[in-house]
Here is the input.
Amino acid sequence: MLEDSIDDLYDSAPCGNVSTLLDGTIAKINATLLGWLGYTREEVVGRLRFSDLLTVGGKLFHETHFAPTLQMQGEINGVALDLRRADGSRLPVLVTSAVKNGTDGQPQLIRTILFDARERRAYERELLNARREADAERERLRGLIAGLQHSLLPDTLPAPPRMRTSAYYHMASADRVGGDFYDLFPLAADRWGFFLGDVCGKGLAAAATTSAARHTLRTATAYDPDPAAALAHLNTVLYQDHLSPSHRHCTVVLGILTPTPTGCSITIAGGGHPAPMLLHADGTLEPQPVTGGTIIGGLRSPRIVTRTFSMAPGDTLILYSDGLLEAHPDLDADRYDEQGLQTFLTRLAPTTAPAAVTALRELLAGFERIEDDVALMALSLDEPLT
Here is the structure.
């Protein structure tokens, strides 16, 4: 009775059981596997090899990987294969095989257990489809974010007479809109206004603040070309929402460019922003710090620092956000910092706005880690403005 029970357990087990000779010829097979395949025992035992039950791809894998691994290790577990039914259809299974040795220690048989993997395969397909849909949705979201980011920046950067300009924006994350911004625009009396700033944080709140800052500064300088007054006006606009959870402050440097007989005069006002760099035609570099200026939008009455300097033919002015200074050239390196930037720019001087921005873009491309967005804008003077 016990022997009958064991035979019945083997034959009607919920998994497929098959024993083969060492050359793969089927010596024993249970009713479960025969039922899955649609064969009779007479059609299989002693007539087919195990590999004959596999699809073309399964046979190739069996010959090149499965059988050699089994021969070397004596067992192989949980391999996904496809069986070929008598009607030509496929049956996905998980296969585990082990070599049975005789009393003399020599291999005698190969015992194989097969589990129906149709539900698992269907689940994997569902997961794959869900992954594809998620990837497609993520790409769509990235497209929307890139479009939103682009809308916060000027479509093109104009150039004052006898000047060249260039700008670049690097998004540290394709999944979140950043808060860096810049602009260059004409004013009355042949003057030009320009600014570059950085709103704290990322996301929609930062994007809203970025849009408000850019349009506020353009409007303010149109009415009063005093850069300090323009920043004070922006501070009033941003500070009025300082109790709101969506409140954001920013750092910014704003300048007014005025033509002179020998070049141009620039007055800048800064609120907590890194110093612009002036590269002279003689190859020297002169930072233009506005040290002591406080962030804009964080205090009711901020401290705004101004300075005035001149640009001569061959000079280039570079503005940037602090994402450049906080980048890591190497995985284990410290942040780039202002001293590293000055050393790099000194090697460029003299240069032009397009060449400087191109060099900085290449510099960023070589960094191992850039944690924050980076905005760059450069202006170079080719000849005196008259």
